Amino acid sequence: MRVRILAHLDLDAFFAAVEELEDPALRNRPLVVGGDPRGRGVVSTANYAARAFGIHSAMSAAEALRRCPDAVFLRPRHALYRQYSQVVWDVVGEIVPRVERTGLDEGYLDLGIVAKDFPQARAVASAIQTAVRATTELTCSLGVGTSKVVCKIASDRRKPGGITVVPPGREARFLAPLAVRLLPGVGPRAEERLRRAKVDTIGALAALSDVDVAMLLPGSYGVLLRNRARGIDPRDLEHEAEPVSVSAEDTFPRDVGERAVLHEEVRRLAGHVAERLRSSGLCGRTITAKLRYADFSIRTRSTTLPSAVDDAAVIGDVACGLLDRGLRDRPGALRLVGVGVSGLSPYRQLTLEEA
């Protein structure tokens, strides 16, 4: 029987980290993504320089501004974050084929497919960190364990860029000293009920009898939380049955700056993507060009078309335009180019000639 080894991957301060990559002048400055300098709205993400002032997600922008008047406030750019997220998950998918994405910046991995034991799983987690950083310059933290609840909590223990492994049999011991509010599923109301009963830690919740749980948190909800507090969580990964994107990329034997050579390669890759789309009965609306520079930094540029396509010429034309746009934003020789199509569907809108 295959060993059950799961991991939770969490990109560190993701939105803020992307903004720092796009504008290196923001590094080491307190940065808040979400809200505005007038103190309206709420914080989506804060970088670690801002977190040093006690700023965190879901905090009001007004409070964040009060705590750090010198903080830089930026509005979220979700299209840009989706581009980086797709690159990250493409990289992860090359190492671990079975994943469950739960957000742009986090998800679960089935490490048992590629690791026979927990020491090997740690090595795989480290390889994932290295690959993500080499491709995107982003850092991530991972929690490795036998269940989703343990992995989720573990991934937050050694941020940024840490790995926490909880071997089999140590789940309850790992969870016990932690604040009960850290247990997924414990919301403000449940936390208040537990606090009034002096159940302040996950271990205290785990120790409750069926009768005590029923009095504090009636119904199956209380039993579910109590079991999770003991590290018992049989949930499996929920993975997408259909591909969310089709892409192709290639690394040059030497860095290439000649635009004609780059266009030729992009069109060749577009042909491969179109062939895979048609063989799968799919087409897509969003086209992405991927650019990796000589220093291994990466940029992606995307656009969404009015209707879905599977035509190599159209994909190639659009991808070449995106490549040119990327090189205008940041000139330089490229080590790798890639073409991707997402926003997939099984149908293609017919042209007048085909109708």
Outline of the structure:
This protein has 355 residues and is an alpha+beta fold. The protein has helices at 14-22, 48-51, 61-67, 78-95, 118-136, 148-154, 171-175, 188-196, 202-206, 210-216, 220-229, 259-279, 312-329, and strands spanning 6-11, 31-33, 45-46, 72-74, 99-103, 106-110, 140-145, 163-165, 245-256, 283-293, 298-309, 334-345.
Plain-language structure description:
The protein has 355 residues and is an alpha+beta fold. It folds into four domains: 6-14 and 79-165, Reverse transcriptase/Diguanylate cyclase domain (Alpha-Beta Plaits), CATH 3.30.70.270; 16-78, MutS, DNA mismatch repair protein, domain I (3-Layer(aba) Sandwich), CATH 3.40.1170; 171-229, 5' to 3' exonuclease, C-terminal subdomain (DNA polymerase, domain 1, Orthogonal Bundle), CATH 1.10.150.20; 245-345, Dna Ligase, domain 1, CATH 3.30.1490.100. Helix content is 39%, strand content 23%. The chain has 13 helices and twelve strands. It has helices at 14-22, 48-51, 61-67, 78-95, 118-136, 148-154, 171-175, 188-196, 202-206, 210-216, 220-229, 259-279, 312-329, and strands at 6-11, 31-33, 45-46, 72-74, 99-103, 106-110, 140-145, 163-165, 245-256, 283-293, 298-309, 334-345. It has a five-stranded mixed β-sheet with strand order 5-6-1-7-8. Strands 9-12-10-11 form a four-stranded antiparallel β-sheet, with helices on both faces. A three-stranded mixed β-sheet has the order 3-2-4. α12 crosses α13. Residues 348-355 have low confidence and may be disordered.
